[in-house]
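User: Sequence in, structure out. Go.
Assistant: Echoing your sequence, followed by the structure tokens.
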Amino acid sequence: MAWSFREKAQLGGLLLSLLGWVCSCVTTILPQWKTLNLELNEMETWIMGLWEVCVNQEEVVVCKAFESFLSLPQDLQVSRILMVASHGLGLLGLLLSGFGSECFQLYRNRWVFKRWLCLLGGTLEASASATTLFPVSWVAYATIQDFWDDSIPEIVPRWEFGDALYLGWAAGIFLALGGLLLIFSACLGKEEESSLRMAGPTVPPFYAPADRSSDSFYLTPRPRNLFI
């Protein structure tokens, strides 16, 4: 079975969106949003995420969940809300794009309706990318501001980037690419539909009844101005 360019674009968009959504979920769960290394005790490392703070001391990790949402810094509060919203948008976009793709066949499912589903799903994936990149970038910006803050004494340890931030940036890029591919595939379908309408239906030739003058059986063309 030969796949058209539009079907390949849809499949690529779905796979990239799924990969970005999984990476976004993992980013939300991981506590490595910020890391803190103590110079006095090099064997002890602190890590902070959206849900808990952990300390790693001699390969023993002890975590404690945040007791109150209001006690979090403002960047972590907004990041928790936006990351959860990103999961909902990404999942809804995957479902709509899957129903609107060529791989999903439904009885009496019109192509125009499927094209709009694919277009809406791609838009939701692009929105999920924005709600993933914004909180990750905000936490990174706040970390840089605190790291280079001159009002804090130099002996005080500073928070640095964690591995979850890099995974979050990758998730946002995958979601953006997947959403753009889905939107592009929907636009390709619109161009194909308009070209088919301009071409118009083909009219089959008229044929007269078979000539039985001989033993052979064949059809002879009938003139268009002949009425019965």
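User: And one key feature?
Assistant: DSSP finds four helices and seven strands in the chain.
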